[in-house]
Amino acid sequence: MSEAGKTTMTGAERAAIFLMSLGEEDAAKVMRHLGLREVQQLGAAMSALENVTREQVNRVLGDFVTTVEEQTSFGIGNMEYIRTVMVKALGEDKAGSIIDRIFMGGNTRGLEQLKWLDAKTIVEMVRLEHPQIIAIVLAYLDPDQAAQVLRGLPERARHDVIMRVAALEGIQPAALKELDEVMERQFSGKERINSSTLGGAQSAANILNQLDSTSEASIMEQIQEIDPDLSESIQELMVVFGDLAEIDNRGVQLLLREIIPIRWCSRSRGPTTE
């Protein structure tokens, strides 16, 4: 965020400004409640901050104060209050995963510990488990970490696991019991975990988006052979605006001519040098 006049900030930038405004001690208390990935993302956002104006700081703090004044942290509405504050501070995408963990309760410490392990260690822990167990673990991890774990699995198992991630619609008690037993073997003394809404086609797409193109294509090809409808659902969710960054200027112009009515395009394009 090097532009002094920048008005649009990402959720990570807003959170970084807010935490740095609190001071070292209070910021440390907040970050103590975050997972490893969130700490890393916030740390990167903090290190990238430069030329932050007083107006930007006041805007971030003002938004937070306004949220607190408009909501209540007591009695009815606690969940909505937490959701609103988190989204205001961190943005919709980043806040979503944190909110889910809060509402899941405090009995997922075994799974949470996985987030602090490197991908190779996680692969060693789960590689001999049932693919459904591996799928639940991947669905719980952040997409980039899950992609690293998926890449470490045997190639023959990858498409099966990612299909199971896409097919997850909540976790059934039997699957939870299996997962709990895995966690008990790896981390002793952990409590039973509660049901959660992990997985789905979006989760599978997020993981695949983090893979290299060769691995992604191989997995999608195998899914296409087994379940074309599921393959199409995942593929649609993998189409992101970030892909446009790979298109040159002429390609973007051709794309616009295809998807925007010619009349509108002729008005907005203006004089051309071609």
TrEMBL record:
Molecular function terms from GO: cytoskeletal motor activity
Domain Flagellar motor switch protein FliG middle: 120-190
GO cellular component: bacterial-type flagellum basal body; plasma membrane
Record's subcellular location: Bacterial flagellum basal body; Cell inner membrane
Residue ranges of domain Flagellar motor switch protein FliG N-terminal in the record: 9-110
Domain called Flagellar motor switch protein FliG C-terminal: residue spans: 221-260
Top-rank taxon, per record: Bacteria
GO biological process: bacterial-type flagellum-dependent cell motility; chemotaxis
Gene3D superfamilies: 1.10.220.30
Major subcellular site: other
Keyword RNA-binding set for record: no
Key words, A-Z: Bacterial flagellum, Cell membrane, Cell projection, Chemotaxis, Cilium, Flagellar rotation, Flagellum, Membrane
The keyword Lipid biosynthesis belongs to this UniProt entry's keyword annotation: no
Membrane-related topology note: Peripheral membrane protein
Family that this chain belongs to: Belongs to the FliG family.
PANTHER family the record matches: FLAGELLAR MOTOR SWITCH PROTEIN FLIG
Summary of the function given for this chain in its UniProt record: FliG is one of three proteins (FliG, FliN, FliM) that forms the rotor-mounted switch complex (C ring), located at the base of the basal body. This complex interacts with the CheY and CheZ chemotaxis proteins, in addition to contacting components of the motor that determine the direction of flagellar rotation.
NCBIfam families (UniProt xref): fliG
Protein's name according to its UniProt entry: Flagellar motor switch protein FliG
Source organism: Nitrococcus mobilis Nb-231
